[in-house]
Design a protein that fits this description.
Blueprint: E1 2-3, H1 5-11, H2 22-29, E2 30-31, E3 47-49, E4 57-60, E5 66-69, E6 74-79, E7 84-89, H3 93-96, E8 101-105
Antiparallel strand pairs: 1-2, 3-8, 4-5, 4-8, 5-6, 6-7
Length: 106
């Protein structure tokens, strides 16, 4: 699987639908991936890393949500409150993943 920054940036602002949840965003950006049928499956993806890099998956420790980093300081995810794919900063992690998170890379 390869990380695509072009796909990631093109997804920002896309509408969240029943067919385009958080795991679908990550699958799209990791081109060729159909890894996560649900967000919780990303708890077993690759290996845990200490700090995010572009292409790193951020997954909630409760397995309820997943996103993907587009740089070392920003990630995208499918926001249920905004009903679209948004870009967020590292400072937003506690709000997006209130039960904790892991950074994972293949």
């Amino acid at each position: 699987m390869a990380y695509s920054s072009i796909i990631a940036n093109n997804l920002i602002g896309a509408s969240r639908t029943a067919d385009f949840q958080c795991n679908h965003v990550v699958n799209e950006v990791l081109t060729g991936s159909k890894y996560g049928k649900i967000a919780a499956e990303y708890l077993n993806y690759g290996k845990v890393i200490d700090s995010p890099i572009a292409g790193a998956v951020v997954v909630g420790k409760d397995g309820k949500h997943v996103g993907i980093f587009i740089s070392t300081t920003e990630f995208i995810h499918s926001s249920s409150s905004k009903m679209k794919v948004i870009k967020a900063s590292l400072s937003q992690l506690p709000f997006v993943f209130p039960n904790g998170w892991e950074f994972r890379i293949e």
